[in-house]
Specification:
16 strands, four-stranded antiparallel beta sheet, about 280 residues, 5 helices, about 25% strand, Jelly Rolls, globular, single chain, alpha+beta
Length: about 280
């Protein structure tokens, strides 16, 4: 593998807009081996009609069904805030989360829960969404890793306005690949719930799942961006580029994407809206 000297600032483009980020404290960036990780045996999305792009936005809830989901997520997050921070949640809404959870310490307590949830952590039957995903994909889905027999967690992403509440660009498979030379063959399902618009939607790098690892400059032991440390491996460039485009997924839709696709850097440029999304990672049953 080739090793490059790490700079402490790097530039990315989101929908053509240049943005600079600090990488101070990040592990070194290296290119990987000359091989492609995504294929018919390793990428669950391989046989989907949108595989070449790496992602697709799909309708899956009508207006009433989405309202029910939004209410369920609101109640679930309010319960976590009350339990973890002893904050009065009367009148709470997801878009105004930042007006209730006002410090980084409190927010840290909330996201320590919301990034690692299971069905019992929700106040509604969140697992009822899975058959809807199955119908769209035409495959049976499960939430247990067949190798480890561990249940895969559900994530509620909470991104406060004008904050650093975002991961660096990354692939979800890398941590398992680096630690165990194995990654579960899963699909990502990202559902916008609140505060999602063209200033906060999830950025993606189309077709990046088909690149050889020798074209991807990344860390191999976590990543640091804007002073925040993450377990995910930070990707600095791919095929010599650092350009992402925001998804256009809307309420009532689900963004489906390959676990091999580069995504992240979900800067919330809204001035007064917290962005909330629900995320599943599910395997073929």
């Amino acid at each position: 593998m080739n090793t490059l000297t790490m700079n402490e600032e790097t530039t990315f483009f989101i929908n053509g807009v240049e943005m600079k980020f600090s990488t101070k404290g990040s592990p070194e960036f290296r290119y990987g081996d000359n091989k492609r990780l995504s294929g018919k045996d390793t990428d669950m999305t391989y046989h989907q009609p949108w595989y070449d792009q790496g992602y697709s936005e799909q309708d899956f809830l009508d207006e009433d069904q989405f309202a029910s989901l939004s209410q369920g997520i609101t109640q679930s997050i309010a319960a976590i805030i009350k339990e973890e921070c002893s904050i009065d949640v009367d009148g709470f809404s997801l878009e105004k989360y930042h007006e209730f959870v006002t410090t980084d310490v409190e927010h840290g307590k909330v996201i320590s829960r919301t990034r690692d949830l299971f069905t019992d952590d929700f106040t509604f039957p969140v697992e009822d969404l899975i058959p809807r995903f199955e119908k769209i994909l035409g495959v049976k889905l499960v939430d247990v890793d067949p190798l480890t027999q561990r249940k895969i967690h559900i994530i509620v992403r909470i991104n406060r306005p004008q904050s650093n509440d975002f991961n660096p660009p990354h692939k979800d498979i890398y941590e398992a690949i680096d630690l165990r030379s194995y990654a579960a063959n899963f699909i990502n399902l990202w559902i916008p719930v609140a505060g999602v618009n063209d200033k906060s939607n999830l950025p993606l790098a189309p077709e990046s799942h088909k690149l050889n690892e020798s074209q991807i400059l990344r860390t191999f032991d976590g990543g640091t961006i804007q002073g925040n440390k993450y377990r995910v491996r930070m990707i600095k460039s791919w095929n010599g580029k650092s350009e992402l485009v925001r998804s256009t997924v809307k309420y009532g839709q689900v963004l489906m994407f390959s676990g091999h696709l580069i995504h992240g850097l979900a800067v919330n440029s809204n001035l007064d809206l917290t962005r909330v999304a629900l995320e599943f990672r599910l395997l073929k049953g």
